[in-house]
Write a structure and sequence with these properties.
The chain is built from twelve helices and eight strands. By secondary structure, it is of the alpha/beta class. Helix 2 links the parallel strand 2 and strand 3. The structure holds NADP nicotinamide-adenine-dinucleotide phosphate. This is Pyrroline-5-carboxylate reductase.
């Protein structure tokens, strides 16, 4: 299949690389010479001309920032969208808006995360159409996929999109705690990452509630319970719940603002 990636930045580049590795022919677009050179160095075709990329592809991925979308879409003849399959990875831009702008196209939304750069994204997909299977395959090349209702995209953005930042923050806390207890930062960082990988493997293997694993390692009057008491006193779990709720509310608010702005800008440009 021939795939166009409109906007070959962080996420776009990961998708270009993944699509190439699955044997697809890929054309990536960008504005700067640097972006185009990066796409070419991966072995894909590169162009500034979005129309050329769309016209020659069956599947089109839109991976520009939402604020650049009105300008990008205005430079494309509306007829070009007819019969194409389009997947938008833009945060917040709703299917209904995309369908209104790209009339005649089969439209999907995808919400990958930054882990797509290492082939480990958990990507939410939503939308309906004949090429659902191909869309799924494309995103499986950068990790795992979940088909969800569009209403869940905001909480997905908070949990899985912002999740790597929240986990990085926790990792830093664990490392600093070890440094404060006398371990070198380098050793602590490496140990924390290995411990996390092992914990994930363990949780996946047991498939039960995460608290079963917690209780397995909690000896009476031991080390773990001493640490857990602090977590309890400092309301760590409550803070995590509020973190996701706040990020989810923010994703919904930003999505609404972005979506309305795009609709307004597109109608002004007509
Ligand atoms: N980063 C994430 O973790 C993440 C996660 C989920 C979803 N997303 C979504 O993915 C999209 C891209 O995010 P990103 O982080 O990859 O952004 P990014 O690195 O800034 O990439 C955006 C790319 O779009 C290109 N571009 C801008 N206007 C263009 C135009 N008119 N024609 C062709 N290319 C154009 C830019 O090219 P130049 O640099 O050459 O100008 C840049 O390479 C966003 O909509 C975001 O909401 C991102």
């Amino acid at each position: 299949m021939r795939i166009a990636v409109l906007g070959s930045g962080t996420i776009g580049t990961a998708l270009v690389r993944a699509a190439l590795s699955s044997g697809h022919r890929v054309i990536g677009t960008g504005r700067s010479e640097r972006t185009l050179e990066r796409v070419k160095s991966l072995g894909a075709e590169a162009t500034r001309n979005n129309e050329e990329a769309i016209a020659s592809s069956e599947l089109v991925v839109v991976s520009v920032k939402p604020q650049h979308f009105p300008e990008m879409v205005s430079s494309v003849s509306s007829d070009l969208w007819i019969g194409r399959t389009v997947v938008s990875v833009m945060a917040g831009v709703r299917l209904e808006t995309l369908r209104r702008i790209m009339r005649g196209a089969e439209v999907f939304r995808a919400m990958p995360n930054v882990n797509s750069t290492v082939g480990k994204s958990a990507t939410a997909l939503t939308g309906e159409g004949e090429r659902r299977g191909e869309v799924d395959s494309l995103f499986r090349t950068v990790g795992v996929t979940y088909w969800v209702q569009e209403e869940l995209m905001d909480v997905w953005t908070a949990l899985v999109g912002s999740g790597p930042a929240f986990v990085s923050e926790l990792v830093d806390g664990l490392v600093l705690g070890a440094v404060a207890s006398g371990m070198s930062r380098e050793l602590a960082y490496s140990a924390v990452l290995d411990m996390l990988e092992g914990t994930i493997a363990n949780l996946r293997a047991h498939r039960g509630h995460p608290l079963e694993l917690r209780d397995n390692v909690t000896t009476p009057a031991g080390t773990t319970i001493a640490g857990l008491k602090v977590m309890e006193r400092r309301l760590v779990k409550s803070a995590m719940m509020e973190t996701i709720e706040a990020a989810s509310r923010r994703a919904a608010r930003l999505g609404k603002v972005i979506d309305e702005k795009i609709s307004r800008e597109i109608s002004e440009r007509k």
